[in-house]
Amino acid sequence: MKKLLLSLSLILLVTLTKAQSTFVRFVTNKGDITIMLYDETPKHRDMFLNGIKIGLYKDAEFNRVIKSFVSQGGELDDTILNREKQHPELGTKRFPAEIKPMLFHKKGALGAGRDDNSDKASYFTQIYLVVGKKQNDAQLDAIEQKKNRKIPEAQRTVYKTIGGTPNLDQDYTIFGEIVGGMEVADAINQMATDKNDVPLSAIVFNPVVLSKAEAAKLRRQLKY
Prior knowledge:
Elements: H1 2-13, E1 23-28, E2 31-37, H2 42-53, E3 60-66, E4 70-74, H3 77-86, E5 109-112, E6 126-130, H4 137-147, H5 153-161, E7 174-180, H6 182-189, E8 204-209, H7 212-222
Antiparallel strand pairs: 1-2, 1-8, 2-7, 3-4, 3-8, 4-6, 5-6, 5-7
GO molecular function, one term: peptidyl-prolyl cis-trans isomerase activity
Protein name: peptidylprolyl isomerase
EC number: 5.2.1.8
């Protein structure tokens, strides 16, 4: 517990040199997933990199898998909230949101989990991968009416052809996307779970930051 609390304190203080187009490989017991972190959300990008550096995601698990919705990894809400309840002297620490209109919950997006705080601030130790499903115009129209916001035409096209979870847009910070291994992410999202969406067998992952050479090679392959 002391080590974890120390790590959570360090993550508030450590500032890494900002890297452009950073890639992280999720090495899982189901296969590898490669993710590009967005430079448009530099604070969340660096927060996640800091977390990897100090071991917050070592042997982490996708511990809440909601089929055709998201696969959540890191710490569960109950774990975080119970720790805060047991240690009120530490206060409630959340990471300020970086919600950008052009970053949305398309299939393959990487998001930061959070509780229902009014600032939409993120947890330090919880992420999720979007799987979602394809939407039709009627479904997207209903979301627009419910949330009183217009879904850009380009995003509507993506939701209709690739899929995602548009009902989460502008409520959670999206800070990356899958650029390799989507089939692994799909397989993880289809794993058998109990009634609480907890996988029946452990889905372990270890995020590894790609070297500059590896990232440069991957950018060339992806034409970024």
